[in-house]
Amino acid sequence: MSHGVPSAAPDTAAVDGATARRRGWGWLLLVPGMLYLGVFFVFPTVQLFLTSLYDPSGNYFTGYTLTWHFANYLDAIRDTWHLFVRSFIYAGITTGVCLLLGYPLAYAIAFKAGRWKNFMLVLVIAPFFTSFLLRTISWHTILADNGPVTDFLRTVHVLPHDGRLLATSVAVIAGLIYNFMPFMTLPLFASLDKVDHRLIEAAGDLYSSPFTGFRKVTLPLSLPGVVSGTLLTFIPACGDYINAEILGTPKQYMVGNRIQAAFLTEHNYPLAATLSLILMVIVVLMVIVYVRRVGTEELL
Amino acid sequence: MATDVQDRTATESRAQPARPPRRNLARWFSDHLVLLIGILVLVYMFVPIGYIFALSFSQPPASATGHTSATGQFESFTWGNWTSICDPEGLCDSVKLSLEVSITATVIATILGTLMAFALVRHSFRGRGVSNLLVFLPMATPEVVMGSSLLAMFVAVGMDSILGFTTIVIAHVLFCLSFVVVTVKARLQGMDSRLEQAAMDLYANEWQTFRLITLPLAMPGIVAAALLSFSLSFDDFIVTNFTAGQSVTFPLYIYGAKLKDFPAQLFVVGTIMFLISFVFVTAGEIYRRRRVRAWS
Hints:
Structural class of chain B: mainly alpha
Helix content of chain B: over 70%
CATH architecture of chain A: Orthogonal Bundle
CATH class of the domain at 89-262 in chain B: Mainly Alpha
CATH topology of chain A: MetI-like fold
Strand content of chain B: under 5%
Distance between the termini of chain A: 9 Å
Radius of gyration of chain A: 24 Å
CATH superfamily of the domain at 89-262 in chain B: MetI-like
Largest sheet of chain A: none
Structural class of chain A: mainly alpha
Shape of chain A: globular
Largest sheet of chain B: none
Order of helices and strands of chain A: HHHHHHHHHHHH
Oligomer: heterodimer
Order of helices and strands of chain B: HHHHHHHHHHHH
CATH architecture of the domain at 89-262 in chain B: Orthogonal Bundle
Number of domains of chain A: 1
CATH topology of the domain at 89-262 in chain B: MetI-like fold
Helix content of chain A: 55-70%
Shape of chain B: globular
CATH superfamily of chain A: MetI-like
Number of strands of chain B: 0
Number of strands of chain A: 0
CATH class of chain A: Mainly Alpha
Number of helices of chain A: 12
Radius of gyration of chain B: 25 Å
Strand content of chain A: under 5%
């Protein structure tokens, strides 16, 4: 959708779908929201950009001066590139595993649950309503060195005798996967639920195996859900710092931990702003390339 | 419900005996394997909930320093935590602040976002592409960036002295807004425009059509958007941490408690939140089913 320039001819695309788009004063509805986004999103982002160019020799107490110090970016990248790499690797693995686990779940709810469909959907959303900090803290307890999971894995020799789960990358990624699972499952379900069952049956009638039917019919039709699910998982996972902080150690820290510490503990605003902007630019670029590649422009 | 009917026809066609046995086996396998994986994933999602529930009944062990921390393993059963929810200092105040913040933010975000969704779906004007992009960008911004940019702005315009309720609400409306627009937009795009045309044909004026046809049809989307906003806002930690100043919302309280004593009452509040939302969602579902049955 989203045609930038309205055509003079009646909008033919609107015949199937929404009501014909009306010209006139309807855009006024957009004004309050756009003002809001302008004042509290665009303006702060510009402010963040200016902050990132402050002279780094200033500090919280003496104040900073804007010196267009672009070297901040080079310094930040040189010092923290490993945090960015780690963040994107963690977020990438998280997104992949969430897709692998979330797809069967969404598929089961949409096609196999029958009358239990809505109940299963409620179950997917329900854990979401208990504070995610509490849930992450209880993972900390579950994965602890004297906890049941570590005990079991040691007993079956998956982990060595003194092996740990807590404070490893595995724990941090497991926490990320857990926390962002609903963000993957719900969009997947939404698009799988719309798939017309008759198309799948038609594939079967034309002698395709269930797997081929899935690959050629169901999967392509669920692609919009895959796109929004992966985005809704990947984006927050990149910037998360709670899982690394609770389930990991400084060795597992992600770029979010650094930004948070620079901003709130060290009051090193130029560094925090620089890191934030780098993160934002990388994520937005990745998202745009990805959305273009997969070819669903619906989101934009 | 249309999907139920489809399900039934799908089962009937599956029951036809003409298929060779190997394909039946594959069918059975794919049927039940996917369902089994789905159920296992659900179980995985409920493991921490079970822990929170259990620990809400656990007597927290007193450590040598006299501090108590409830984050350990289950000790011994007690009702004590449930009868003394408000005992830990500031806990109930933080829950109250969280409720106030998320209700305010939800109302504002739902109104602004719904208006925007109507404008974007129903009206054509120059700059729709840019508007769509501007709505999308906050969703593509990691929370840590959004929080730090807001804080950078509040500091720059001298608002850092009033950090608290207002600034938290401003931040929460911001990240809820885009989700509201997207949710309501999806609903509006899926609506059958012929119903509105029919109303107009039957001499309803624009306002009547909107009030009697459009709004009721859009309502499920608006309600879903409001629920989503509420849960995003109530549970938010990262953006709140940047914009709260000295105020303490429930997630901030948990975070603070993690650093020192961790009162078991936090698990009680977590359990209560879970139960309330579960009852609400289930009741809504039962109500919806009844209505569907009454209609058909």
